[in-house]
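quick one, 289 residues, struct below
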Amino acid sequence: MGSFELNPKTLRKICRDTNTYAHCPELNDLLHLQCKGILKIQSLEEYTGLKAIYFNSNAINFIEGLEKLTQLRCLYLEQNCLDSIDGLDHNLELHTLDVATNYITTVENLAHLKKLHTLNLSGNRIKSLQDIEHLKEVEGLRSLDLSKNKIDDIAAVELLWTLPLSLLKLEGNPVIQKISHYRKMTIAKIPTLNYLDDMPVFPKDRRFAEAYARGGLEEEKAERVRIKEEEKAMEERHRQEWADTMHRGRESARNRPPQKGMSLEFKTPEAVDDMVQVYGYEAVYGEPK
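---
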């Protein structure tokens, strides 16, 4: 595929092809520009209403040309040729930044993005603590994908343990093999974590991990016993609640006068006798005895 130049003409054609606003560019809130062979981000000054842009699978070397897009919330730059993160000084509304599968070695120039929640850095060339120290300054960050990098520094993972993340992906980094019981330790160290690598963190997972962090395998075994006892007690409580509900239902039916001449087809003889004793023969059968 040859290179593709972004200019007013080609952008209008893309808008026509995607049934968006070719002659009122400021009304567009989404642009699909993936897989075009784009080398440079440019000519977007009139697209001031954009909320999301997909630049996936191009040949872009620099993040640039976004100064007028002050409402931009989602920027997707996966599979390009980036080796740094910059050019986002004016995009203060940015919530999601995807720069996966590039050539980035250092996380930088993000601290001013107070609303940045989701950052995908998967498949880059990040290696050490120094490469990710800047993440401490990204205050709103909750979802971080660092999978398939080259991180082999335990200190880098220890820094990540201090962040209030709800999702963290580190699979595919050599450092995981260096940390004993990596999953348990990570869950225990990040109390806000709901998802780690390719699996959710369930409440029982957290209790097991925190028990292990407190007292090793013996404490984890004890926690498993406690959880089993709690589950057994809960089952018994639910069984008793069901039994109580059934009992109340039977008592309510017993004490409620039946409609005159109602069908007794599905009632046992014993139940019918009980009803006769309580309500009288005529009320039950609809006729004098």
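The first helix runs from residue 8 to 17.
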